Amino acid sequence: MADLSVKIGALDLKNPVMTASGTFGYGLEFADFVNLEDIGGIIVKGTTLKPREGNPYPRMAETAQGMLNCVGLQNKGVDYFCQKIYPQIKDIQTNMIVNVSGSCCEDYAECAARINELENIPAIELNISCPNVKQGGMAFGVTPDGAASVVKAVREAYKKTLIVKLSPNVTDVAEIARSVEAAGADAVSLINTLMGMAIDIERRRPVLSIATGGLSGPAVKPVALRMVWQVAKAVNIPVVGLGGIMNAQDAIEFLLAGATAIEIGTANFIDPAVTVKVANGINEYLERHGYKSVNEIIGALED
Amino acid sequence: MKKYILDLTVSSAEHLRDSYILLKLTQEAPLPEMLPGQFAELKVDGSENTFLRRPISINFVDITANEVWFLVHEVGEGTRKLGELKRGDKLNVVLPLGNGFTLPASVEEKILLVGGGVGTAPLLYMGKVMSEMGCRPTFLLGGRSACDVLQLDMFKEYGDVYITTEDGSEGEKGFVTQHSILSSERFDRISTCGPKPMMVAVARYAKSNNITCEVSLENMMACGVGACLCCVENTNEGHVCVCKEGPVFNVNKLLWQI
Questions:
Q1: Residue B235: which domain range?
Q2: pLDDT computed for residue B83 by the predictor
Q3: Which residues in chain A (134-193) have CB-CB distances under 8 A to chain B?
Q4: What's the CATH fold of domain A6-296?
Q5: What does pTM read for this prediction?
Q6: Where are the alpha helices (DSSP H) in chain B?
Q7: Measured between CB atoms, which of B94, B219, B238 is closest to A272?
């Protein structure tokens, strides 16, 4: 068995496989299918300071090798998370990470401060890239100054590992990444979904309730991989790669492109046990090539 | 209930009428317990433009043969691909998912099960479980034409069957809510599954006659386990996942205009 452990900021992961926010619930939904403690990190669904009902149905459209969603950050708010969810997940022996979203810097910071108090939550992933909410969300993530302002506010309130999730819906993702690094992020994760659309030609209407949504799944993988590769070269903090990872081969591509860890999202819907299979597949690859540690292949593209 | 990912074997794939396939699946080990009204997520391999699983109601569980049945209406690329399955093929399924229909509290309770089109599928298993409890439900099954009313012989084993078709090719002509049985008999509870306009009409009938009514929804799903929040229905408790909190709901919980 190769050494699969990696480090993200102060966070020790037993393997580089994490789950993408919004695709794995609070982990509990998948406990019948996988041993949650075999996953390097579980990033639970987006949490905001106040409860959010999200967007109206329909929120999902299947597309060629992908899916669009416009869930819109439905969640019961950080108080509910702290009181009702946290007690159920705090003893799961892996990194339970909360994805934090908001509509202004103060909300982000206050939500992060509340989660800072939870002993067994070692990190947050800051969502400055949700394409499905009108205010905040992606609005922060598309300019270097906007991204820096929210990261600075959260950095003051949050003392543990801070991962910032970046939007692909920008001209120069490396510039945004450098900006959040300078503002105090411990790591960046990318990509969030790509903004897209689907139309029902019989009804001459958009399929999704708010017309547009975020595209995920295998269709976005080449774009995600390219962006991870660009960002890994642009920053000195660890990069977490995600976007259309369906199997170990996809995951290894991201590691070679410079990602220290990866997140699995949409693939959980097709195979609820995929996370553990990917971790095992990475190990097999390392053994087959005679690597002792996964760290040997991170960013190890041949020139 | 514990959920499983299973690689099942197709023991029979029978095309019923035009565009329906009845898949009977089995495995060596005993199948897990499943309740009427629950569903499974069927993996579709080799489809070019779809890649999500298809949520399909549990049509029947044959404990003696260790089989679970799925009645699939071939309406899109994913379900058409399922329609190509042959005896001996493997099919990966996740089950059992969601919550089933309310079972009768006593044998005296008079239950009406109303199904439309492929929505009749889960009612067959409901009928079987009820008959094992000593109950005899009334089935009211509707379709556009006789082609859409399937598995009649089996329904007749478990209850009294009444039919409507829109073209009058089988049973009474019209919609299920126009069937004469509704004015001649009185029921304590109605469970229904089918197209939404039909279920709304059934819910209206139930409301005006003060009968408890539960409906089985089929909102578009991705994960099937309450993680992605795509299949939500608006309820008196806000948006809830049909896959996890449903697919069966008491209609009073929904914000339908009835």
A1: 217-258
A2: 96
A3: none
A4: TIM Barrel (3.20.20)
A5: 0.96
A6: 77-82, 121-132, 152-158, 181-184, 196-208, 242-245
A7: B94
